[in-house]
Design goal:
By secondary structure, this protein is of the alpha/beta class. It has helices at 9-13, 31-42, 69-81, 92-100, 110-113, 116-125, 143-155, 183-191, 201-205, 211-220, 247-256, 267-307, 315-331, 336-358; strands spanning 20-24, 48-50, 84-88, 105-108, 133-136, 161-165, 197-199, 225-229. Helix 7 (143-155) links the parallel strand 5 and strand 6 (161-165). Helix 6 (116-125) packs parallel to helix 7 and helix 12 (267-307) packs across helix 14. It is elongated and about 75 Å long. The chain binds phosphoenolpyruvate (PEP) and manganese (II) ion (MN).
């Protein structure tokens, strides 16, 4: 697939004066719920109503969606509000049913993107359709797998395409439900600057309080839009209750977000600066997380040393860490003085941690 300006034709055709906003519940629950949320969203910045009809759950026993019946509710919501509709399709039958019910945008879930077999089947079912297909990243951080899925649709003559960044699964406990690994969408954007890139802060966050921050980062990184789970009664939602926000909160977030103007003129400078600062912030967050991880390991070492009554400062070990870091740093353009200072500070902190453990 080549990067071509045409990749964004479908989005340009909406003629929006702000980034695309897709909003709505994680799952369609009842007709009343879908229509009420659509009405709440109608006069906001939200352009498209989302609702999951078939829900891929990691473990059985959770709510698996209302099924085809819910498509009628989406149709009613569309008739009553004029909003476009979007839902997830995970097999050829879903595609057929969604199209029969005039769904305007189809998305591919993270659990489908991981499997080239499933993607191939869905892509064949979509052959030649004009409705945009938005491909969520796979649950594992693999850019090639993500792009491979997009290419399978492209090869089946689905020309209106986009991608959704919903974060990546990790075994580690972090503040996110799915870690953003921003470098991956940044790399994707560098390869395909004209492929619309949508942020899913809801599934990255897994909680409400950091949705706005994530949206701002997305905007600063030139994302083209957002898909945000929205429900009038988030706490009682049948799926993903913790991460859904109310339509009123959505309106407030949209008001508070700083949408940067198009590139050009003196704005170009601001634009470039904000984007670069955003990348610095993301990198700093990773550095802090990694330092914290390193200190946790130091704590473990402290425990082992205390149990075995071994002294904390082990000169040989420290010298070899320093030499290796200086050599690795040198290979990526970091000076010996800099690495020495940074590692001295890290080492001090490590020793302080181990002292506390030994007490
Ligand atoms: C969803 O959008 O509700 C969903 C199931 O998302 P994901 O495929 O990103 O987990
Ligand atoms: Mn969800």
């Amino acid at each position: 697939m080549e990067n071509k300006k045409e990749l964004r034709n479908w989005l340009d055709a909406y003629q929006l004066d702000h980034p695309l906003v897709i909003a709505g519940p994680c799952s369609a629950e009842t007709e009343e719920q879908v229509v009420r949320i659509a009405k709440d969203l109608k006069d906001t910045d939200a352009n498209v109503l989302r609702a999951g009809i078939w829900k891929p759950r990691t473990r059985p026993g959770n709510f698996e969606g209302v099924g085809a019946l819910g498509l009628k509710w989406l149709q009613t919501a569309k008739q009553e509000t004029g909003m476009l509709t979007a839902t997830e399709v995970a097999n050829p039958n879903h595609v057929e049913l969604a199209l029969e019910h005039d769904v305007d945008i189809l998305w591919i879930g993270a659990r489908s993107t991981v499997s080239p077999f499933i993607i191939q089947d869905i892509a064949e079912a979509c052959r030649g359709i004009k409705q945009p297909v938005l491909v969520k990243n796979p649950i594992n951080p693999d850019l090639a797998l993500w792009l491979g899925a997009v290419e399978r649709f492209h090869t089946c003559n689905v020309e209106n395409l986009g991608v959704i960044h919903r974060g990546f699964s990790t075994y580690e406990k972090t503040k996110y439900r799915n870690i953003p690994e921003w470098q991956i969408p940044i790399d994707l954007q560098a390869k395909f600057p004209d492929l619309p890139l949508i942020l899913d802060p809801s599934h990255i966050a897994g909680r409400r309080d950091i949705i706005q921050d994530l949206c701002q980062t997305g905007l600063d990184l030139n994302f083209d839009g957002m898909i945000i789970e929205t429900h009038y009664d988030p706490d009682n939602a049948w799926s993903d209750a913790k991460q859904q926000i109310t339509p009123a909160t959505l309106v407030q977030i949209m008001k508070d977000l700083k949408v940067r103007k198009e590139k050009g003129g003196s704005d170009a400078y601001e634009h470039a600066l904000t984007e670069l600062r955003s990348k610095i912030d993301i990198t700093d967050e990773v550095i802090i997380q990694q330092l914290a991880k390193r200190m946790k390991i130091a704590d473990e070492i402290g425990k082992v040393k205390a149990e075995n009554n071994v002294q904390i400062l082990q000169n040989d070990r420290w010298n070899s860490i320093r030499d290796r870091s200086i050599s690795e740093g040198g290979q990526v353009g970091l000076s010996e003085e800099f690495i020495t200072e940074v590692y001295n500070a890290i080492h001090q902190e490590s020793i302080r941690h181990q002292h506390n453990i030994g007490k």
